[in-house]
Amino acid sequence: MGRGRGRGLTGDDLFAEDRLRNRTRNAPLAARMRPRTLDEVLGQSQLLDADAAFRNMAQSGSPVSMILWGPPGSGKTTLARLVAKESNARFEQLSATSAGVKDVRAVLAMAQQRIDDGSGRTVLFLDEIHRFNKSQQDALLPGVEDGTVTLIGATTENPFFEVNSPLVSRSTVFRTEALQAADIATLLRRATDDAMRGLVDVVVDDEAIDVLATRSGGDARLALNALEVAAAIVAGRGSSTVTVAEAEEALQSRIVRYDRAGDRHYDVISAFIKSMRGSDPDAAAYWLRTMIEAGEDPKFIARRMVILASEDIGLADSRALGVAVDAFRAVEVIGIPEAEFALTHAALYLATAPKSNSVKDTIGKSAEMVERTAGAEVPNHLRSASFEGERAFGYGVGYVYPHDHPDAVVAQQYLPDEAADALLYNPTQRGDEAEVADRLLAIDEALGKKGRGSP
Fold it and tell me: Alpha helices of 215-339 — where are they, by DSSP H?
């Protein structure tokens, strides 16, 4: 068939092939240990509990088109195969990285022929569906809309952004989650205990299991692949026991689940910002380290800290902005890894600084007031009077120079008439801003402003 086509299999044939493949033991361990029933699937309780919509739909024998959205190694392909098995449907697999519209049309034609022949339904599993462009995704619509195929798309990206709205509206979106370390440990132990599908003549220490389970980033496939590599390492050394040393060697380094172009990127930076805003330096340091180890652009991190310094700290500690800007400058001047010290310094400072969102609040109120008083004229006494002729029109006339008066504050209108009574800045009583608030009360009294108070 097409270059992106996988073998078409019915539900029973799908797992008959698995058994044949397992006997040859040529397939990777992760493929051999693929769950054969819904009950063997680990984690994903939100999908597989007895009353979960996904489980009931899968076991009904009449699956609907769906999009499985979740991180790598969370079981999306396995769930798609099990849906086909439960409904005794033919399973056709394409990968959006290699397939095209021609391949999609070939599957749709075959599926229609099966319907005409009374041969049953077809499940089309499209891996990495987000990699299809708009026209390629549009090619799926007719077959999904008229029920020629049951489409199961898999993606690590947010389908509401990466998949065409018409296709999303015709599908049910199910979210898979990264596996917990305990679930991955169970899966690894299955691989060491299963004489038919798992490892043979290899013993794996409990400590090695724990290392593989906790350092695989919730990715079951990665954990099994690492276990298989570790087993090969010990076999090459004439041993039969996988220890922590081999597990760590197989992993090479701690795995950080992160995608600079995907949802994880936005989730982690969001957690970082919210940790600093929430005054938790430990969490801020953790998420910062996650981004650094994953290779995130350090300037991106520093820019977000500069924003936070004014948005969430502001006048409660005006030094915070300087610290953040200095960290950004350090990244520009010396780069990573040395600039990690400056980034961590800034993150800890921002996390432990007193918080105020009065700057952000003032921006919002100012924008609203400007929109409401569009076209407001500058009062004459505030206008520039660079030329003598301008004063004949009242420009600059009546302006009082503040420094000629005690405390450099004098009762004088600085806002246009339409917004003369506006109070746009409300300081908090936190950090240095408490002193600003006290000073502003005296200023308000001198300017004749009334009604300002802490939010």
Answer: 220-236, 244-251, 263-277, 281-293, 298-308, 319-334
Rounded to two decimals, what is the model's pTM?
Answer: 0.61
CATH of the domain at 244: 1.10.8.60
DSSP string for residues in 245-266: HHHHHHH-S------TTSHHHH
Q: Are residues 151 and 16 in the same domain?
A: yes
| Closest of 342, 337, 338, 334 to residue 305, by C-alpha | 342
| Per-residue pLDDT tens digits for 274-286 | 999 999 999 999 9
Q: Is residue 4 one of the residues assigned to a domain? A: no
Same domain, 285 and 212: no
- Calpha distance 176→354 (Å, rounded): 38
Q: CATH number of the domain that 335 lies in? A: 1.20.272.10
Q: Are 193 and 246 in a shared domain?
A: yes
Whole-angstrom distance, CA of residue 233 vs CA of residue 246 = 7
- CB of 123 closer than 8 Å to CB of 110: no
Angstrom distance (rounded) from CA 436 to CA 425: 11
Domain coverage including residue 244:
181-251
206 vs 395: CA distance, rounded Å = 84
Q: What distance in Å separates the CA atoms of residue 268 and residue 292, rounded to the nearest whole number? A: 11
Determine the Cα–Cα distance for residues 330 and 309; give it in Å rounded to an integer. 16
DSSP string, 107-129: HHHHHHHHHHHT---EEEEEETG
What are the tokens at 253?
């380094």
CA distance 287 to 272: 5
| pLDDT tens digits for range 184-221 | 999 999 999 988 888 878 899 999 999 899 888 788 99
